[in-house]
């Protein structure tokens, strides 16, 4: 079959995802009143009706405003309570601890859990004989674990429903003292060995979300024969790749001077890097998305409150990385781009070579993901394998599937994606392992349109593709210059400045820096503990809920309000695009190439 370029695939995906617009519904025009039977309308009725509508809208706005601020108060209280409890994983499934890496000879702040409950039933009753175990690893990129299973319709939930034994890898808020990336990888290897020993003859299926995806890739390169198919969800393995005007985050090191800033933050944190900085970077990437989040809560406060609070409980749980870990990640992956080149140094005398991976890989990416676009998820393949013949000669099978619109978190959070794409992957494991070596695109045909349907109501095909079509052009020389600048500034900081920063830092200053971070202050200052007047908001919200009078969705004032919100979103989006374009222009002038 003739290979298609990734751009062509994107157009086909967008075309397949398109839906016919809903027909415009017109209200029937009221019949004209009879001159003989109906009295003429009063001249004052229209103004009175307009005044009544205005007062009703004002009342609705005030009620929604009180409920909105009360939701933010409850979010703040939830955040503080979560902190008091030690930031436990937000899994919606009962589990038991199998291994705790904090007790290892080389400790790491990771643990392996076995999911023991599904839909209020013992998970053992759901397991089908012969199905391989599924090990899900969540990203350690500022937040805590649980996003892969913090609701029933999730990666954990789908794997349980498909009859797989499920294990979940969690981590704790604080890294072990002096913890390195090598310590983490050694701990993960021991976890996989424990799972394989519990299920002999059925190598575990690995799920790596975002940052955990490239960690799983390193693990797969080191665990030949120990693991089965590996699913990489929104995982950046080729960080320099991207689309000009769409993926500006990859340029940030060129403006910040490299890895020294992460080193400084870690020093001020007494050897720990605060994950709140990473989350702040995510939020600044698309300001219009943050505006829409709060605007949607305000306009739909009656239906969105619980969903908002559930997600924010995870989003505002900020975890720490050790200084060694964040520097290894920034220098090797984000700035050095050394993973795809086989230069990622794990420990003394050991570098990661992706050509050593022999287990099948499934790469799930989305064109709506501006944090890990398909360029970064797939661009490593032609960097590791010269062409399709080289990939086949290596005996490797790589399958990718793309979504045309879902955002970064939606790849492993969206219930619709979990019900459809992730279940389709699990249901197709046998076909995947039977493929001949090569590159394939996984295409899912679902005539019913129901994301909950099972085979044979939908079909999966694996269409051959060419490695050569995944080559993405980007200014490699410019990024090489960024890496050189980073190495110079980091060497200066490490030698001259870092010893002084470490001497000044202590647990008290690190704790103060933690609680003064704007990602935390913007939340907890709205709690009743810090702002006593928020108790008045809570009391007012209780009164509003007892006598709530929401307006119908087709109210003209509400329609105009949503139109204003949409226009504001457009203004913010336009401003963000101008900002990104200016950054790219400056990057090109600084480093001699247009991204």
Chart the SSEs and their pairings.
Layout: H1 6-17, H2 45-84, E1 95-100, E2 110-115, E3 117-118, E4 121-122, E5 134-137, H3 155-161, E6 166-171, H4 181-198, E7 205-209, H5 211-222, E8 230-233, H6 252-256, H7 260-268, E9 272-274, H8 276-285, H9 287-299, H10 301-315, E10 320-322, H11 323-335, E11 344-347, E12 350-352, E13 361-366, H12 374-378, H13 380-384, H14 388-393, E14 397-403, H15 410-413, H16 415-427, H17 429-433, E15 438-445, E16 459-465, H18 476-504, H19 507-515, H20 518-524, H21 534-546, H22 556-591
Parallel strand pairs: 5-6, 5-7, 7-8, 8-13, 13-14, 14-15
Antiparallel strand pairs: 1-2, 2-6, 3-4, 9-10, 11-12, 15-16
Structure commentary:
The strands form 4 sheets. This protein has a 10-stranded mixed sheet with strand order 1-2-6-5-7-8-13-14-15-16, with helices on both faces. Strands 3-4 form a two-stranded antiparallel ribbon. The chain has 595 residues and is of the alpha/beta class. It has 22 helices and 16 strands. The chain is globular, with a radius of gyration of 27 Å. Helix 9 (287-299) crosses helix 10 and helix 9 runs antiparallel to helix 22.
Shape estimate: globular
Q: Which percent band covers the strand fraction?
A: 5-15%
Segments where pLDDT lies below 50 for 5+ residues?
Answer: 1-41
Largest sheet: 10 strands, mixed
Structural class: alpha/beta
Number of helical runs? 22
Biggest β-sheet: strands ordered side by side in the sheet: 1-2-6-5-7-8-13-14-15-16
In short:
The protein has 595 residues and is of the alpha/beta class. 48% of the residues lie in helices and 13% in strands.
């Amino acid at each position: 079959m003739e290979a298609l370029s990734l751009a062509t695939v994107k157009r086909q995906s967008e075309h397949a995802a398109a839906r016919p617009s809903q027909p415009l519904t017109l209200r029937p025009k009221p019949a004209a009143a009879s001159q003989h039977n109906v009295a003429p309308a009063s001249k004052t009725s229209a103004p009175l009706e307009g005044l009544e509508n205005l007062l009703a809208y004002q009342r609705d706005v005030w009620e929604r405003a009180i409920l909105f601020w009360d939701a933010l108060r409850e979010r703040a209280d939830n955040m503080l309570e979560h902190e008091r409890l030690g930031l436990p994983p937000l899994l919606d499934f009962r589990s038991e601890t199998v291994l705790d890496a904090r007790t290892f000879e080389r400790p790491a702040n990771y643990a392996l859990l076995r999911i023991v409950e599904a839909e209020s039933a013992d998970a053992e009753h759901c397991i089908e004989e012969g199905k391989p175990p599924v090990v899900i690893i969540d990203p350690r990129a500022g937040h805590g674990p649980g996003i892969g299973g913090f609701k029933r319709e999730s990666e954990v939930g789908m794997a349980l429903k498909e009859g797989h034994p499920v294990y979940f890898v969690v981590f704790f808020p604080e890294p072990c003292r002096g913890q390195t990336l090598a310590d983490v990888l050694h701990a993960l290897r021991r976890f996989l060995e424990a799972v394989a020993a519990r299920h002999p003859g059925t190598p575990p299926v690995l799920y790596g979300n975002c940052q955990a995806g490239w960690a799983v890739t390193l693990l797969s390169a080191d665990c030949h024969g120990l693991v089965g198919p590996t699913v990489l969800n929104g995982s950046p393995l080729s960080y320099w790749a991207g689309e000009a005007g769409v993926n500006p985050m990859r340029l940030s090191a060129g403006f910040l001077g490299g890895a020294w800033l992460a080193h400084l933050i870690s020093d001020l944190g007494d050897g720990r890097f605060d994950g709140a900085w990473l989350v702040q970077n995510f939020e600044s990437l698309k300001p219009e998305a943050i505006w829409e989040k709060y605007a949607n809560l305000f306009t739909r406060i009656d239906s969105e409150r619980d969903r908002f609070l559930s997600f924010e409980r995870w989003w505002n749980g900020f975890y720490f990385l050790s200084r060694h870990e964040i520097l290894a990640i920034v220098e090797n992956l984000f700035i050095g781009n050394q993973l795809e080149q086989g230069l990622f140094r794990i420990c003394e005398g050991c570098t990661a070579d992706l050509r050593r991976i022999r287990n099948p890989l499934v790469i799930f990416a989305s064109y709506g993901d501006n944090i890990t676009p398909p360029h970064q998820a797939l661009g490593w393949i032609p960097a590791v394998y010269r062409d399709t013949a080289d990939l086949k000669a290596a005996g490797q099978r790589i399958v990718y599937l793309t979504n045309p619109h879902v955002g970064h978190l939606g790849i492993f959070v969206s219930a619709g994606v979990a019900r459809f794409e992730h279940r389709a992957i699990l249901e197709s494991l046998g076909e995947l392992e039977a493929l001949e070596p090569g590159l394939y695109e996984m295409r899912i045909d679902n005539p019913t349109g129901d994301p909950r349907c099972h085979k044979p109501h939908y079909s999966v095909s694996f269409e051959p593709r060419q490695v050569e079509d995944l080559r993405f052009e980007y200014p490699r020389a410019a990024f090489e210059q960024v890496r050189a600048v980073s190495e110079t500034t980091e060497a200066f900081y490490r030698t001259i400045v870092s010893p002084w920063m470490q001497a000044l830092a202590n647990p008290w200053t690190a704790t103060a820096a933690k609680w003064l971070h704007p990602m935390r202050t913007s939340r907890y200052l709205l709690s009743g503990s810090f702002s006593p007047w928020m108790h008045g908001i809570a009391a007012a919200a209780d009164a509003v809920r007892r006598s709530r009078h929401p307006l119908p969705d087709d109210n003209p004032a509400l329609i105009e309000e949503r139109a204003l919100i949409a226009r504001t979103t457009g203004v913010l989006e336009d401003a963000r695009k101008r900002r990104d374009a200016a950054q790219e222009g400056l990057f090109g002038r600084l480093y001699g190439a247009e991204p």
